[in-house]
Specification:
The complex is a heterodimer.
Chain A: E1 2-10, E2 16-25, E3 30-34, H1 41-47, E4 56-61, E5 64-65, H2 74-79, E6 81-84, H3 96-101, H4 111-124, H5 140-152, E7 158-162, H6 170-185, E8 189-193, H7 197-203, E9 206-211, E10 214-215
Parallel strand pairs in A: 3-8, 3-9, 6-7, 7-8
Antiparallel strand pairs in A: 1-2, 1-4, 4-5, 9-10
Chain B: H1 2-21, H2 24-52, E1 60-65, H3 71-83, E2 87-93, H4 95-103, H5 108-115, E3 123-128, H6 133-141, E4 146-151, H7 154-195, H8 197-205, H9 210-253, H10 265-292
Antiparallel strand pairs in B: 1-3, 1-4, 2-3
Helix pairs in contact in B: 1-9, 2-7, 2-9, 7-9, 7-10, 9-10
């Protein structure tokens, strides 16, 4: 599903975020990226949907070398990769439902089918009852679940999450992780970056531990 | 196909919302006022052209004989003129007939009575085949018994030339304002892009194509242009209505029903289409420049 070989990422100005990173993620796998903040977890995740491009080495997603993709091909790559961010990146000028609908407005679904999928996604994260609320009215954990619903509404094969539980209390964090696990159980490949060691130990799976941009 | 239509409808809908909410109305007004200048000038010029079309532009020359010339000399000159290949038609106006025409004008008979004789010479009105009036007029001036030659239509042609210059000036003005208005829309759309920055960034991250992200901005520019064109027509219409009240008073005193007509539908449509094009172009340039800057990578 995802494979990195000898990937390095240097930012302009000389700061090196990743050194010689190689790993492979099988389809249907649940894996964690761990490490202190600044270890390169976010950079690694951003290379997969080509939000960043590697300085050297290759990043293969679904058989495509994403580092070499043309700009015009990126949207179609990203539609097949669900992204969840630490700061949810929800839009606060519209309802929860409209936030979840957003990826369906351009993916060519008929309106009725799109509405059905959006409600199904909200149902899976347990927020169907809040579809008309503005995200600002929801708690941090609920907002993170809306973000997950938006990430999975296009039924991506791969789900990436960058510190999805960082700002949440233990109970909300557990709820969010359980949702990821549930998606993994129906075949979605899930990769979660976190510094929460307890979480990782509880759910197991492949662990990619980063220290100063190197895999340990 | 249906999905595609749906996307366009959605883009248009969101453009309408932005248009109604934002500074779209202000830039519409700017476009309207700016385009009203050349559009109004054009309307006036077209009105004047309609007026001057009633004047004769036929290439005519009046050939006046010397007052003391005999009728026999006039006949000889007439034969000479008819023999000239450059001349199409010759009409003889005897001095008696000229006097009768002139006498129809109020006040003139008294003047003539005071003179005690017919002051007018015999004359020929010559229509020439070619456009070069002046050289022909000069040649005719050298013929025997000719006292004075006048190319009647020269002033009318000068008027037409002047109108041509006016039209050219209006085109230049329209072109300059067009460039300025593209810049106005460019800036309006830039502000709108900045306002929606967060939404655009999220859309890029979740896989929206550039075309999808740009579309509402194109529609927004187009709407502003269209509305601006309509405002321009409104301003021209209102200005003409005011102007015509005065013009009617004046033209009635000349016994004429002249007034400035509103633009014909084709021209009005062209103005709105031009404004819409400006709006779209401004949006296109602005979006092309500013969305690239927002790439997450």
């Amino acid at each position: 599903m995802v494979s990195f070989s000898a990937v390095a990422k240097r930012y302009p100005g000389g700061q090196t975020a990743l050194h010689d990173v190689s790993f492979a993620l099988q389809s249907g796998e649940l894996a964690f990226i761990t490490g202190r903040s600044g270890a390169g977890k976010s950079t690694l995740l951003k290379l997969i949907p080509a939000i960043e491009r590697p300085t050297s080495g290759s990043v293969i997603v679904n058989g495509q070398n994403v580092g070499a993709l043309k700009r015009s091909a990126l949207p179609y790559l990203r539609r097949n990769v669900g992204l969840v961010f630490q700061d949810q990146k929800l839009l606060y000028d519209r309802s929860v439902y409209e936030n979840v609908m957003l990826p369906l407005t351009f993916s060519g679904q008929a309106p009725r089918e799109a509405a059905r999928r959006a409600r199904a996604a909200l149902d899976k994260v347990g927020l169907l009852a809040r579809e008309r609320s503005n995200p600002i009215q929801l708690s941090g954990g609920e907002q993170q679940r809306v973000a997950i619903a938006r990430a999975v509404v296009n039924r991506p094969a791969l789900l990436l999450a960058d510190e999805p539980t960082a700002n949440l209390d233990a109970e909300s964090a557990a709820r969010v992780i359980e949702i990821f696990v549930a998606f993994n159980q129906v075949g979605v490949t899930v990769l979660i970056a976190t510094h929460d060691q307890a979480l990782v130990e509880r759910f197991g799976g492949q662990i990619l531990h980063l220290e100063d941009g190197r895999l340990q | 196909m249906i999905g595609w239509l749906h996307q366009h409808r959605r883009a248009l809908g969101s453009a309408f919302v932005r248009f109604a909410r934002s500074a779209g109305l202000l830039s519409t007004l700017v476009i309207g006022v700016a385009l009203a200048l050349p559009a109004g000038g054009y309307t006036l010029l077209e009105g004047l052209r309609g007026l001057s079309a009633r004047l004769s532009f036929a290439p005519q020359i009046s050939v006046f004989l010397r007052p003391e010339a005999k009728r026999a000399e006039a006949d000889a000159l007439g034969n000479l003129l008819r023999a000239d290949r450059r001349i199409d038609r010759v009409r003889f106006v005897p001095r008696e007939e000229a006097l009768k025409e002139l006498s129809a004008v109020q006040g003139v008979p008294e003047v003539i009575a005071a003179l005690g004789r017919n002051p007018l010479p015999d004359a020929f009105v010559v229509t020439v085949k070619e456009d070069a009036l002046e050289p022909i007029a000069a040649d005719l001036g050298r013929l025997p018994a000719v006292g004075h030659v006048q190319a009647d239509t020269v002033w009318a042609r000068r008027l037409a030339a002047l109108a041509g210059i006016g039209r050219l000036a209006l085109w230049l003005l329209a072109a300059l304002l067009g460039v300025g208005l593209v810049a106005v829309i460019f800036n309006t759309i830039r502000l709108q892009v900045l306002t929606q920055r967060e939404e655009i960034e999220v859309l890029k991250l979740i896989g929206a194509t550039d075309a999808f992200i740009r579309r509402p901005f194109y529609y927004l520019g187009l709407l502003q242009g269209l509305a601006g064109g309509v405002v321009a027509l409104g301003i021209v219409g209102a200005g003409l209505a005011l102007l015509n009240r005065e013009v009617r008073t004046l033209s009635e005193s000349y016994g004429s029903g002249f007034h400035f007509a509103f633009l014909p539908p084709g021209d009005a449509f062209a103005i709105v289409a031009f404004a819409a094009l400006i709006g779209w172009l401004g949006a296109y340039l602005s979006v092309a420049k500013h969305l690239r800057e927002m790439d997450p990578d």
